[in-house]
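Figure 2 data, in text form.
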Amino acid sequence: MAERGKTQDVSYPQLSETVASLLRDRIMSGQLRPGERIRLEEVAQETGLSITPVREALLMLRAEDMVELQPRRGHVVAPLSRQDILDVFGLQGDIAGELAARVAVTITTEQLDDLRQQHERLRRAAQARQTSRVEQLEFEFHRSINRLAGARKLSWLLRTVTRYTPSRFYASNPEWRAAMVADHEALLSALEAHDPATARPAMARHFTDGAERLVKHLDGLGMWTGHDAT
């Protein structure tokens, strides 16, 4: 085990991001709750890594206000409220909607055909319940749209804030997969019509729907207590 850890840690910045992504998903989906302690050794053992990339992952999550370092307790999950989720997803929708509106003005036939091909691969993966592939293809679809917008800084902001999205949680949810396919088809129709006024809310709705589904899920877990319920 020690030798394997050493080999994997040669590229530990990438491994750190993998661990951070795993923990983000667990935090945002309620598997890890506010105030719950995250033990480096347990995460390292679970992932088969040494302490180094796990520690780096937790440093990343501290910078994102996902976890806090508390005296005598170590790393714990930071407070998270229902309003936090609505705020974060609302911001995602605003930025993504603006990018989609810009793409609607400039998109070419070839670019639209490429997006439709990506969407068809995603639709087939969703129908086949291929969770990991849905997660990957959904990311690639939105990345393609963001790149077409030609707005480097806005795309960077969106990429930063979407770190709070529990993509594994969504990809494994059959209702979300069906809604995702419908949202993408509505967006593609707006892009084909070169209609920014329709593309903007079509994209934003994709994120607000995600917020509503996540809040409902966390409500069911009894996530919110005291001031965190607001």
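Caption note: The first helix runs from residue 2 to 8.
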